[in-house]
Amino acid sequence: MTAMDRSAAITGMGAVTPLGVGVAAYAQGLRGGKSGVRLLAFSDERIKSSVAAQCVGFDPLTVLGEAEAARVPRLVPMAIAAAREAAANARLPIGPELGVEESRRIGLILGTGGGGIDFTLSQAEAGHQGRRPSLWTITNGTHGNLAGELSIALGLRGPSLCISTGCASSSDAVGMALDQLRSDRPGTPDAWIVVGADAHVRWETLWGMELLRVISTRDWRGDAEHAGRASRPFDRTRDGFVLGEGAWALVLERPAAARRREVRPLARVLGYGATCDAFHRVRPDPEMAECVRAMHLAIEDAGLERTDVEVIHYHGTSTQLNDAVETQAVKAAFGEHASRLVGHSVKGAIGHPQGASGLAALVATVAGLTGADGGEAFLVPTINLGEPDPACDLEYTANVSRATEARTALVNCLAFGAKNSALVVRAE
C-alpha cells in the first residue's frame, strides 16, 4: 500500500460551534480572533463558575422536530447538523437519497466524552421532583446508542461506532476511521462520517470540575464585557479551562473512492498515534514520555520526519499544569525543530469542548490552512495570550491570525485517564 493509499482523504467538514454554525462561520470567527465564551445563561449558588462557551446560535429545531429534540441529549442535533454539513460539503449522498447498498458503504463514528450526561441528569431531576422520567433515559445514557441515533438520522447502514476516551475521544475516532480505511477486510466502508460532540454545560458538571480544580472559577459577572478573556491558553495568568460545547464532523474516504467520485480532498489524515501514561486518573505524567511517544508514532505512521511538521495544534487547555507540561513535551518530541514550529490552541476562542476537542482542533487547523471562510490560508490565533509565561516559551500565534503557506500539521490531545493521542494532517 502506497503512502497516498494509506492516507484518508478529508472531503468534507461540518461544525456547530460557540463562534457560529457552519465551517465558514467557525473559520471567520477564528481568523478574526473572536471569543465564544460568555456569561452562563443560568446562575446557581452551588457553583463558582460564571462563564462557558455555548452554541447560542444553534437551534435544535432546525434539525429535529420538537418531540424528537426532547427525546435526545443536546449533542445529538448538534452532531446531526455538523454531519449533514460535512456530507453536503463532500457531495456525499446520505439519508433518503441512499440506496441500501450505498448506505452500507458509509460508516459512522462518534467521539464523545460526556455523551448524554445532560439528559441523564435531567431525568434524575424529574424523578426526584415526582415527575415521570423519559422512556429513553437508558438509551440516552449509553454512549453507543447516541452513535446509533446519528446513523438512523443519516440513513447509514455501515458500522455505527462510538469512541469515548475523555478529551481524546474524537481524535481517537479519526484514528479508528483511518485504520478502517486502510483495511481490506470484507465489508469495510469506503467512507466514514466522523463526529466529535459534547454538550453538557450544567451546574452539576461545572461543580464536578470545580472539585477537581481544573476549571476557571473567576467571577466575570461584574465584567461581562470582558468575559471572553476567561480562557487564556499559555498566558501567565491562566487559571483553568472554560467548559465548552459543540460538534465538529469530517467525511473521511479512501483516496481511490474520492477519485471515483471526482471529489477533490480538502486535506489528508496521514498518521495517528495513541498511548497511555498509566500514571494518574486526571494528572499527566510530568515526564510526558507517552505524550512524546504518541506524537512520534503519528509522525512515523505518516511516513514523515519530525522536521516535515510545520504547525502544531496544542491541546492547550488553559490550565497551569497542562499548558506547561505540553510545551515541554513538544520540545522533547521535536528537539531543535520545536523552536521552528508554529503553534496554536483554539480553546481561547471556544473553551474546552471535552471529547470533541480533537475534531474541533483538526477542523480549525484544516479550515485555516485551506481558507475555509473564502480568504487566504491562515494560522489560527491563540487568543487572550497577553502575558507570556516563562514555562510556555514556544510560538503560539498569539492573539492575531496570520497568513501562511504551511501545509502539514500535528494535532495533539491529552485526556483524563492518562491518555494521549496525535494526528498528522496535510492540507491539499
Output the CATH class name of the largest domain.
Answer: Alpha Beta
Distance between the termini: 20 Å
Report the total helices: 14
Poorly predicted regions are none
Question: Could you report the average pLDDT, rounded to the nearest whole number?
Answer: 96
Helix/strand order: EEHEEHHHEHHHEHEHEHEHEHEHHEEEE
**Biggest sheet architecture:** 11 strands, mixed
Task: Give the number of DSSP strands.
Answer: 15
Helix content: 25-40%
Layout of helices and strands:
Layout: E1 8-17, E2 20-21, H1 23-31, E3 38-39, E4 51-52, H2 66-69, H3 75-89, H4 100-103, E5 106-111, H5 117-128, H6 137-140, H7 143-154, E6 160-163, H8 169-182, E7 191-198, H9 203-212, E8 246-253, H10 255-260, E9 267-276, H11 289-301, E10 311-313, H12 320-334, E11 342-344, H13 347-350, H14 357-370, E12 378-379, E13 402-403, E14 408-415, E15 419-427
Parallel strand pairs: 5-6, 5-7, 10-11, 10-14
Antiparallel strand pairs: 1-2, 1-8, 1-9, 3-4, 7-8, 9-15, 12-13, 14-15
Give an overview of the whole structure.
Helix content is 32%, strand content 18%. With 428 residues, the protein is an alpha/beta fold. The chain has two domains: 8-260, Peroxisomal Thiolase, Chain A, domain 1; 267-427, Thiolase/Chalcone synthase (Peroxisomal Thiolase, Chain A, domain 1, 3-Layer(aba) Sandwich), CATH 3.40.47.10. The strands form three sheets. Strands 1, 2, 5, 6, 7, 8, 9, 10, 11, 14 and 15 form an eleven-stranded mixed β-sheet that branches. Helix 1 (23-31) packs across helix 14 (357-370). It starts with 7 loop residues before the first strand and ends with a strand. The model has no long low-confidence stretch (mean pLDDT 96).
